[in-house]
Amino acid sequence: MKISTKGRYALRMLLDLAEHQNDGYVALKDIADRQGISKKYLEQIVPILNKTDILRTNRGFQGGYRLAKTPDKYTVGEILRQTEGSLAPVACLEHEPNECERYGECATLTVWEGLYRVVNEYLDGITLQDILDRQKEQGANDYVI
Predict the structure, then answer these.
(1) What are 77-92's pLDDT values in tens digits?
(2) Residue 35's closest CA among 24, 49, 22, 45?
(3) Taking the mean position of all CA atoms in its chain, how far away is CA 8?
(4) How confident is the prediction for the chain on average, in pLDDT?
């Protein structure tokens, strides 16, 4: 499994919004500048996130984007599933129930199911707030005299 640029940038965009949640609506240009991501690329990601009610949008003067919920309510798994589609390591696990013709006789299926379970549990166990907290901890440890 490889996370695409779209997934990585969506996560960075949402982290930026989480970090600036007290600033009101944040312009896409500001996020693009801070994150070193093209505004045009972020414009392609916004509709995906808007469709799932992750973002709140305000048009016009002082318009922009903000998180619809607090950062502790978003998991990395949720965000990546929205941008990547499935996080399944093999195609046969993308549908429930499993429709693979070899489902009953596949010797490796339990390996892929285990990997899928571990990936989902890990990514669903990390929130945007967790990442912000870790970032603050690391910054606090960078004190130099």
Answers:
(1) 999 999 998 899 988 8
(2) 45
(3) 7
(4) 90
